[in-house]
Please model this.
Amino acid sequence: MQVYEAPLRDMKFVLHELHNDDGFGNLEALAEFTPDLVDAVLEEAAKVAQEVLLPLNRSGDIEGCTLENGVVRTPKGFKEAYDMFREGGWCALASDPEWGGQGLPEALNKLTEEMICSANLSFSLYPGLTHGATTAIEGYASDALKQAYLPKMVEGIWSGTMCLTEPHCGTDLGMLRTKAVPQGDDSYKVSGAKIFISAGEHDLTENIIHLVLARLPDAPEGVKGISLFLVPKYLPREDGTPGPSNGVSVAAIEHKMGLKASATCQLNFDESIGWLVGKPGKGMEAMFRMMNTERVSVGIQGLGVGEAAYQSAVWYARERVQGRSLSGVKNPKGPADPIIVHPDVRRMLMTARAYNEGSRAVGAWVSRALDAEKHATDPAVKARAEDFIALMTPVVKALFTDCGYESANLAVQVYGGHGYIAESGVEQFVRDARIAMIYEGTNGIQALDLVGRKMPAHAGRYLRSFFHPVSDFIEANKGDETFGKMIEGLEKAFGALQLSTGTIAQKGMKDPEEAGAAATDYLRLLGLVAMGYTFAKAALIAKARLDEGTGEAAFYTAKIATARFFFDRLLPQATAAFLAIKSGKASMMALDADMF
Model:
């Protein structure tokens, strides 16, 4: 059974209590967003997620999208839900007020995204991709394009996509073949085929605005020859209403493992009229503006599915009776005890819980940096935020989606055989979560970005934005009477991270394959240390609240228990990651390609 209730208390904790000393807060531009206002938005978002989107999740998965006469139909109820979502202003939550957005903090927006993804991941892609597309247009398009397209996209009347992948090339976009021919004015005719285009065609909005990577006729080979073009499905008339079709057609809907209610399309562009976004040959720069926005959001997708899977597993573990507790009968009036009494079931539930709470805490930290990057008036704060975002974006994308997929698998395991059949609904979480580890750059690509670009950048400057606060926290709290052992565990993991950084830097300079072999383990290690840091902070705060005699003893007691589980059972992965990194590439690269 798919069960979800927005974890509002934990969301309010990470927003209002956990990160008050991170140096990114107290932004004057966001002063109007008081805790009461923020909480009200979260509570209304929870209602939308639970009452409107969750009921469509399983039915949308069963029905899927259909292609009829070149038009994609979304499952029953999606159009009505989207109209309600748009009319409620949810599409415009974090967008710039200049274009009709509400300008809410990104820290709040990401928690809202989490709720939407928990309730209905397929639905989340339609408004989510549009928001990403508006960031690229806002950052790189001409004023005329901004005026013509941003207001309707921000409102959600028009939607947006990103069109990168082609049948013969995936991550290596330097191989793409889509062409853009100048027409003598400021327009171009774009021709080519794109695949794996999420929300590429659907019936939710009156127009779809595609951001398409293509080559100009005189473009050089490789990535440096790629430009970005804005190509609408329908050419707007002078009054802004959709006009004639623009030569964009759907060849097929992809038959996917999951996300059945998200229309992933193969698109053909046949001399479709488009306009340049950014400078010629600088398309990847503009597209990366959208991709980096989406990579953080994809991490939130992993967290969202992980939370829904965890809650569904808890519900089942309380309801399902099987066997007796090892410490004595707990349900004497029944034939057996609920399976939640068994240690191994607790292991699975606590693992998912800890990954969710750890991801939410780290995600809130990064989101506060996103707000500081945009709104801080102190150049030093803005610079530190930019460094931190650059470092942590691949970690958020890869670690959160790894953990979300693991949590979804654990939910199936808790259900046992009932989890493997469709009727329970939890196998959908596994199928839906799997793509998040692949799109927007596979998690292996994220790890290579971390060790190949972010780690060595500016002589390690990005790393200092993370290392310094963690080191300062350890030094300030290592003698704590209650949590000294926890801080000691964090210090050991942080030491492993520092040693691993040095090992990769030293070996990687001589042999790039050494850095490549260590990349995935290094990303996991850095992410675990980040979670450990936030859990240790959370435990100290929770202890202080309990000492004050708070009326929320259950919440803070559970927070401490979850932190202790993380340090006892999950942070030890840091040692394994360090040992794997230290071993080097030798055994990984030993076999010749033809020996596999």
